[in-house]
Amino acid sequence: MKLNNKQKRNVATEVKQAFNIITNDNTGFTVRESDSENIVESLQTSAVAKLAGTFEAKTAGNRTLTATFNYAEGAAVTTTTTTTVIAVELTAILEQMLPASIALNATQEVIFLVSNTSGLDATDITIKDVNDSLGTIQLFKEDDDGSGKYTATAKWTEVDMAIFNAKDASERTLDHNQRFRITATLKTNTAGEKNIELLVTYDEAKHLDDKNKKTGAKVEYATKVVGITVEGTVSKTLLNNIKLGSTHELVFSFTNNSKEHAATGIKIVIDQQETPVSP
Question: 1.25.40.10, 1.20.210.10, 2.60.40.10, 3.30.450.40: which CATH number matches 90-224?
């Protein structure tokens, strides 16, 4: 089979490459042989040695990577590149603590703040109500103006959590100095302990050193929903028999037995049932 010029060059390169001349001790750099050129023991006139590869950012911090070309006829030649490896980490908090207990069927708003102050963007974000303790969940995106004051992000409108999670991964991001304000209502239709857990997962979390943070940013909070008991009595009753046309004092009393919460939305209905009496 006759080779064309490009194929001849490739064959020549494969024959001449000598990757055993490279010393690469745990630098995070991996040589990509297919894209490297003229890695040889003798570099001919006007030839260019090209060492291609990938660098894996294994730990956070300032990194300097050098490649030094040593040869017999002259001084070593060192090339250098530097970078800062940033651990992207989101933080999630409650904007305001909830009360220790909440009345049954009361309306209780819950607001979470999910912030990115790490320096680079967080990607492939999803929001999860782990214990299904919240009602409708809405997301608002806000920008830090540089002074720690957040304002609504331009061209971003509030979005339901389910709609946000269904978006393409490229849209589910949070840039440096942005935050999500997440609003929800607590489900209070049943009494008992309420364990709130909001989990924000994102791609970069898996690279964090703290194993507890690898699943994402989390807010956990416990409260309880308590019922209110109101007791009703007639504290001043009617006599068994009263004269037609007479008037009598009558007092109905209703006592809220709860020591923690007021009874709200009260309406009192007065009704009368009439039964004819034979003369």
Answer: 2.60.40.10
